[in-house]
Fold these 2 entries.
Entry 1:
Amino acid sequence: MATHCKDYDFRQIEPHWQTFWQEKHAFRAEKSSTKPKFYVLDMFPYPSGAGLHVGHAEGYTGTDILARYKRARGFNVLHPIGWDAFGLPAEQHAVKTGTHPASNTQNNIVNYRRQIRALGFSYEWEREVDTTDPKYFRWTQWIFLQLFKKGLAYVDERPVWWCPELCTVLANEEVIDGKSEVGGFPVERRNLRQWVLRITAYAEQLLDGLKEVDWPDSTKRMQEAWIGRSEGAEVRFKLEAAALGDLNIFTTRPDTLFGCTYMVLAPEHPLVPALTKDAQHSAVESYRKATAAKSDVERMSEAAKEKSGVFTGSYAINPVNGARVPVWIADYVLMGYGTGAIMAVPAQDERDWEFAKLYALPILRTVQPPADFTGDAYTGDGPAINSAHGDLSLNGLHVAAAKARTIAWLEAKQAGTHRINYKLRDWLFSRQRYWGEPFPIVWVSEVDYRQAAALRPDLPAAPVTYVEGGVTHCALPLPEMALPLVLPDVQSYLPSGTGESPLANVTEWLEIWFNAENGAAIPASQPRPAGAAWLRARRETNTMPQWAGSCWYYLRFLDPQNPNALASQAALQYWDVPDLYVGGSEHAVLHLLYARFWHKVLYDLGVVPQAEPFKKLFHHGIILGEDGVTMSKSRGNVVNPDDIIKSYGTDTLRLYLMFLGPLEAMKPWNPKGIEGVHRFLQKVWRECLGEDGGANLKISDTESDPPELIKLLHETIKKTGDDIEDLRFNTSIAQMMIFMNAVQKTPQVSRRTLLTFLQVLAPFAPHIAEELWARLGGSGSVSESCWPVYDADLLVNTMVKLVFQVNGKHRGDQLLPVSITQDAAFEVAKNHERVAPHLLGKSVQRIIFVPRKILNIVVS
RNA sequence: GCCCGGGUGGCGGAAUGGUAUACGCAUCGGACUUAAAAUCCGUGACCUGUAAGGGUGUGUGGGUUCGAGUCCCACCCCGGGCACCA
């Protein structure tokens, strides 16, 4: 079954065993099994035109080693791969070439599949998924319908980047310094109708769930910061012009209400026009216009340098003391957070202090700073001062107590409430693009919607609507039976020119008679079919963002062919969620947060049995170019795995990627280093086989190995296994090298020892391990053999090198029985030729004895 | 500015508070060879000394400890994230 090459001819060996595994379906997970299950998942790639790079190969090699190891340890392992194949580059390619993005995408997938196979990864190809496959995105659309039904999807006007020259909407990453990435044309903000998912409804659960997952702390912290929970109060300020109602503000420092000397509204705040007095009208208007013209980025970077704002001419009344405070507008207050309005407390807030100084507004300290405090605004803890009026007094109370008392008072007077606020915003879920999942939504009139509602039990509690030119449109979902809604072919992949996706140009698809009961559609140009279920409708032209398909793919892998559900309940129960999820830290927030959100919604719907999708997460590092900077085409420092495989073979590449350093580290590629691991594999080959390709003559079937070698073998089994479990592949490889160096120095070695070593090597370098295993007469395939069991008794040392120190300095050492007593060890040390001189003429103050390790003699 | 992660030979890196530099690369010397490649053996932080040895060394400065790369405090540098979120 093995090849017959005499040398280590990896070009022959590696494809041979790859074919062998493929034909045997060697890595197919068992559907039901008495074995424990293990699900190890990689973040699936976007199949770009550039092909797989070594960065992918790094993470995938790590999980492959673990998957192969776990199989050998008797686990039923699920290790799948697929393609996150919707996305911008394919669409841009389509615009350029006029070919359907699907064809380019499929070409790229073919290339990725070839590269991944060439790396010898033990993926189960029968479970491959492709997010652009209608059989897959049918369920992406289905999940969207569940969100829609639950009232978690709505439509809103949101600002997006629009490039007039290109007639298209651009993604944030396509805009560089206010210019389009392609062509360098100016871009502007434009409000367009967008789908938005109510992820904020899950803010608290998304925060809570982080407590129960085994993730890197830094990633948990990033998600916590992104969700940005803060606790405080919403306070109602009456306006002097009572007819205008109240002004609500959010504050985390209700204890400082007495220090409020002015109010600030975001320039976009809806009350601004009503609050603006005639005398201030022109100033306010021009300030609002100036703010609106700025992008978020400009607004933040410019405003961070210098504060600005305008007085509206109006006043509000502070509920705690009746004080009359002026109302300003300023762009340092953001409409998107809290209520879009704040009470300004310059004495206890640095931003407010800066603003107050600029416009000569009063500053009143209400928290006593420490005596040595020298700064401006004091944001620390301390006793309240100047904070009493009527039946409310905070004076003397520290911050926490003062907050509590204020909130209680506000609630009693109905002037405010305790409130929790999040930085997290709802998720802008639509793109004005062709190459994405179409929304399973049609737009109908209010009258038609009411008619449909009678036929459809699956509509949200409140209809999703948007108003355009005074006409209200209602969003009517396709019935589930009508899924998938596939993309129509288009003449041109160029945007419509109105900011809508290219789909808006496909009139026959867009303008339809729609059967509300079964989702059937015919072009509106044809006569209306008979029956009350047929309504005049216009399809949604937005498509979903690339995140959509990757939000749930880990579930589809459990049961990828299922036509009736995203996965069967049996599969969801048996496989549970991934035991380990490995991918780059660039997805620390968005992908991982979005996927958690969808999972929690599915959990609440009873679709999935657990509340968190990724129990354990690990971020692999980044492989830098030889020059120590990020690999990029423009720098010409990209390493293509295909080239390395050609010159050294996959096993060498895999081993090298793992030997480079800790999996999580950022590390530069070193072409010289790869020679080292290749030499190691050559050495393994030579120790196993002679020059004629037969078993090496030093291999014996009768003689036993020297005890040191047997001990080292067992140490290697233990160390390698432990390190694989901890994803510390670099040190496990070092241990294998130590072992082979010892074999090389041994004149004779038993066949059994070498076969055992090959089992240890197999997860790392599976092709050479299979080849040598077969040639040395191992039974079956090494990939199917069990992980060797080490003999713990052999690892016990009877003698140990005890280190002698004098005053903490290493002065000598000696091999001694592990059970030696302190006194006996001291006797030895005292007379040790290297130690004795350091004791001469000194008196021993103290002896520290750590059995098996050290004897430290402290002398005067 | 705030929150993380990290600074160890010429290089990648190793090290439950207990011999700092495992393993690999590079270097230099040697063996084998007509020669080269491959392979093998040795060398491999700095200062001092003929040597044995002694001293100093894990970004900098302090501290805790019998003993610190590891723990604590302050600072410097590099990388990542967030950034007017009231």
Entry 2:
Amino acid sequence: MAKSSTKRNGGGEKSSLTPADWEQEALELIAEKGIAALRVEPLARRLGITKGSFYWHFPGRDELLAKALERWERQDRQHLKLSLSAGNAPAERLADFVWRTSRQTLTHRIYVALCATPDHPCIGPVLRRVTQRRVKYLSAALEELGLQGIQARHRANLMYSSYVGYLQLQAQGLVPDKDEPDFDAYVQHVIETLIEV
Amino acid sequence: MAKSSTKRNGGGEKSSLTPADWEQEALELIAEKGIAALRVEPLARRLGITKGSFYWHFPGRDELLAKALERWERQDRQHLKLSLSAGNAPAERLADFVWRTSRQTLTHRIYVALCATPDHPCIGPVLRRVTQRRVKYLSAALEELGLQGIQARHRANLMYSSYVGYLQLQAQGLVPDKDEPDFDAYVQHVIETLIEV
DNA sequence: CAGCTTCCATACGGCAGAGTATGGGTTTAC
DNA sequence: GTAAACCCATACTCTGCCGTATGGAAGCTG
């Protein structure tokens, strides 16, 4: 029974937690239970550790939240970039956007959680930036499709609104999830209605 | 300077608070800061009173929340009933639904707040009932317009999703509010896109 | 006006989490 | 091998809220 170099980890895990570990776990906690549930002691318990560690890595709760959101925004921007570099035709890119609603579950769940507190000084700015980036992405693709100016912006807002709303209905369990058969039919309907080619 | 019969109220207000007063104030608090902000002592302070009063009217926080939501659901059902009894043509009713998104601000803000915690045992059931009632309303109107069965349901989901999503974007301040000039143009775009006659 | 009900104030105990202080074990550097 | 830096545990204070207990003031009732 050779005791490993540290006590906590029996397997091949890292011996100590990095700030990134805290941030990632914070994001998952937010995705599960919302920002209000992001509290230091519960988060520490979740990581099988005490808050003594936390306050060594971070000055306080707000700083963790800020760093975590920063990380989330980075990941989201990365996802958008991947969509763009795919280099598909605009119609395909838009359809792809709609489909991706059901993938990247974590990112989306976090987005819903943040939507719940848009007035928070740490959250509002990040949330707005992410939203605007996505809407702008949609708007650009729609312009390529032939919609001009205001029409493209309106349609982008509509598309994005329906995306956000669908996330909410999904959270209520009132609307089919991916996997489920009805989902594909619905997405198809959305594409036909909003991206009439 | 005749002192009125009780000390707290200088004007012609009621001398004592009824449960309904608590419930209504609770709803407004929820609309402003979310369900997490619905706490007994702050709410009492808001009413210029102490919690001694609260615990006389209600057994506890959860019971207030339940009663408040019950009241909210009643009001919302009333709104729907009014829309139906208007007896307009389905197209007008749908357009009316879209337009009403920007009215009844309180009801809508409460809806967003509730969406933030769909898993809460007190909230989930109410939220689902309200959502389903509304979607069913839309679906029925769409069927009258000629869409059949699944198509009507899909379109109703899409319309309602775009409604919910718009509320979120509105909360982020990324989208025009009523009053503002762009709003009418957007609503017009939505109607043309989702209710193509 | 005595007595009862209604409505609220005050004071209390308890809990949960934020931050702080401090010390100890482990690794790294020299 | 020793000293420093790193990482975490423990114990503590402080704040804010929940729920309870109790008493008191105002109103009605006879």
